[in-house]
Amino acid sequence: MSLIKSEELFSKLAKQSKASSIREILKIIQSSDVISLAGGMPDPTTFPVEEIKEICSQILTRDSARALQYSSTEGLLKLREFLFQWLNMDAKKYTTDNIIITSGSQQGLDLVSKALLDPGDIVIVELPSYLAALNVFRSYGAEMIGIPMDSEGMQMESLEDTLEKITSKGKKVKFVYTISNFQNPAGVTMSLPRRKKMLEIAQKYDFFILEDNPYDKLRFEGEPIPSIFSFDYEGRVINLGTFSKILCPGLRLAWVSGNEEIIEKIATLKQATDLCTTMLNQLIASEYCEQGYIDKNIESNISIYKDKRDIMLQSLEKYFPEGTSWTKPNGGFFVFVTLPEYIDTDEMFSDAIKEKVAYVSGSSFYADGKGKNTMRLSFCYPSKEDIEEGIKRLGKVISKQIRK
User: Fold this and answer.
1) CA–CA separation, 298 and 285 (whole Å)
2) Is the Cα dihedral 367, 369, 371, 372 positive or negative?
């Protein structure tokens, strides 16, 4: 029997889609004894298994018909009401109609892109930026232009200069994408002055800001900084949040907040994607939050992740050679490392695997293909012992590269 030539029938979107380099790395190391500093997966010890068991039993005992039924596309009202209060959304500007529940934050990124992007549209991103977001924007045919960052986040002067050049050519930016807190992959947090400046620039040049905020609640030290969304009075900021990092990713629950027009459009598009987010999982999360567990769990998570971050930073100081540098995040999951310019971390990866340690090469996070001398290290998933041993092994690999 002859096999169908599938490639000839694939859509343009399918043909240009590429597998996530992080997912491919995880496949390589899944069944081996490699210490992975690659994936940004939460520590399983943070999952509230017993509480979820109890809540599941309660829900299925008293309300099984509802729990196993379809939900509304916008999501469980009770959960949206909780989020409205918990996120301190301004009741003068917003209602629960300004929130939609999605099947993970990745779906939120996809639906916002689907609502706003046509092939050739311009999206401004950070250099570096979240790999999965870049893949989404690329899949919709967006032209991505990167703006460099420093310890305070995206550089606003560079953003304005870039926008001037774009507008002088008669082109327009659809949105700027930013991870404002403990950025993935760089770990840096945008300062308050820059957040305000970004909104001011967005008003001047008339574009949306897509503010991705998955790590907002995982702050280890320092005072929280208001989101860009919180001081937007024009409805031009779209904010993404998720339960994946503060409860568990297996529930696949996240949310998008924005003006009613964009939320309505997202709801319409979501109906063609999955119709609705699973009701059972929404009820579990709603009950978990209403019973007061969520803030306690976040407090516990912060303690666990802060200890791991500290061990990674201490180990970097101890084992990494001169000529290397790294970010020092105040929260989140990641540290970003810069090596001498002549080292290519894509090429070095095979040497690291031989030493039984894995990372993510920085070039994956650069929309312009640069960053080959950088890497992302995750302290969230591995044990404390594996973090130190992994950094020790990686330091050995880098030292050999430097001697070369």
Assistant:
1) 14
2) positive
- Coil, strand or helix at 188: coil
In terms of C-beta density within 10 A (0-12 exposed, 13-18 middle, 19 or more buried), how is residue 249 classed? middle
| Average pLDDT over all residues of the chain | 94
Is 105 in contact with 216 (CB distance < 8 Å)? no
Q: 182-240, pLDDT tens digit by residue?
A: 999 999 999 999 999 999 999 999 999 999 999 999 999 999 999 999 999 999 999 99
Structural domains in the chain, CATH included, are 18-40+295-403 (3.90.1150.10), 49-291 (3.40.640.10)
Does pLDDT of 23 surpass 70? no
pTM beyond 0.90: the answer is: yes
Cα dihedral 96, 86, 297, 360 sign:
positive
At 272-325, the pLDDT tens digits run 999 999 999 999 999 999 999 999 999 999 999 999 999 999 999 999 999 999
Asked if residues 131 and 364 have their Cβ atoms less than 8 Å apart, the reply is: yes
- The b-or-e profile of 97-134 (16+ CB within 10 A means b, else e) is ebbbbbbbbbbbbbbbbbbbbeeebbbbbbbbbbbbbb
Give the start-end residues of each E strand in 269-308. Answer: none
Cα–Cα dist 398/320, whole Å = 8
Rounded-to-integer distance, Cα 80 and Cα 74, Å: 9
Report residue 225 as tokens.
């900084």
**Residues in the chain, how many?**
404
Separation between Cα atoms, residue 297 and residue 281, nearest integer Å: 18
